[in-house]
Amino acid sequence: MSGDLFDAGLQPERTRLAWRRTTLTLLVGAVASTRLLAPLLGGWALLVGSAGVVASLLLWRGATRRGRAVDRALEAGRPLPSPAPALLGVAVATVVAGVVGALVVVGGVTLL
Amino acid sequence: MSRFPRWVYEHGSEPDPRFSLANERTFLAWSRTALALIAAGVALEALAMPLEPALRAVAAALLLVLGAVLPLLSWWDWGRAERAMRVGAPLPSSHVRLPLAVGTSLVSVLVLLGLLLR
Predict the structure, then answer these.
(1) For B35, how many CA atoms within 13 A lie in the half-sphere containing its CB?
(2) What is the pLDDT of residues A55-102, one digit of tens each?
(3) How far is A18 from chain B (nearest CA, A)?
(4) pLDDT one-digit tens code per residue, B23-65
(5) Structure pTM?
(6) Which of A18, A104, A105 lies nearest to residue B29, judging by beta carbons?
(7) Which of B11, B24, B73 should be substituted to probe chain A, the one whose Cβ sees the most A Cβ atoms within 10 Å?
(8) Could you give the ipTM of this predicted complex?
(9) Contact (CB<8Å) A88/B75
């Protein structure tokens, strides 16, 4: 029954990949922020960057679990779980990235 | 069932799951766009791009503001689209497109001017 209404192999897979692209981008940003914040925060930059890496990995893990929950829901014909908590996590992480970016710019950090 | 957020899920019935997943991917795509804008804003200043300094600073600030605001707009878009699909209404027009188009065009003009007025 689950195979009839939609191509189960494509949409959930594409969504999983979209999550991976997004959490990977956040992870790379968190690592880069360590380098960028170092002139401003010294050793604390490592702490901030590590927090970002941990947050990105948590989002990654949340996305993986959600992918499995979506698969189960589709197979059982149940409504999809809400993506909103995970989406909110991404939104918050992105806004934080913006704040970090503003700090770097206002702090006059140059890499050259 | 009370899924979060209620202002979305308390209306209507389940749409085709493909559409919900597509809606989800749209939000994620906007988030990646926001991160790219933030990275561009940081790069303008941190890599000391050879532009007129004041214009470069404004362009960087604009990129950062766009990048920070985009997730909020696209979150709102996501909720409205999901709710519209649930009640069978037409998809609402996105709140992201106009600010993004105006903002990035403005940044382009600032960068061009910054190059010319070095």
Answers:
(1) 25
(2) 999 999 999 999 999 989 988 889 999 999 999 999 999 999 999 999
(3) 6
(4) 999 999 999 999 999 999 999 999 988 999 999 999 999 999 9
(5) 0.91
(6) A18
(7) B24
(8) 0.90
(9) yes
